[in-house]
Write a structure and sequence with these properties.
single chain; 97 residues; alpha+beta; five-stranded antiparallel β-sheet
Length: 97
């Protein structure tokens, strides 16, 4: 079993980052997908904490806010956010078709 690494989190995790991580892990607990290697962390440029899944969907939270599901088009880099995982899956299917 591999160790879990959370990227770009300092030793003193901020309150919003901690709340956001707890929310994305809670959301992840109901999804049966593998986590992308190196796919858990904090993006200091955007403020999002995330879990990136191998299927191409990321579970995100901005400053401890509501969980969102992100699909990024690998062709043009456009990021699309969804309120639920099912919508993100459907969108990802259309991108991959």
């Amino acid at each position: 079993m591999e160790n879990l690494t959370i990227y770009n989190i300092s030793e003193n995790i901020a309150y919003c980052e901690a709340i956001g991580l707890s929310q994305v892990f809670k959301a992840y607990s109901s999804i049966n997908e593998d986590i992308l290697e190196g796919g858990i962390g904090f993006n200091p440029n955007s403020g999002y904490v995330y879990i990136a899944l191998e299927n191409g969907i990321s579970i995100c939270s901005l400053f401890g806010g509501q969980v969102e599901y992100l699909v990024t088009s690998f062709e043009d880099g456009v990021e699309t956010f969804f309120d639920n995982y099912e919508e993100a899956e459907k969108f990802l299917e259309t991108l991959n078709a």
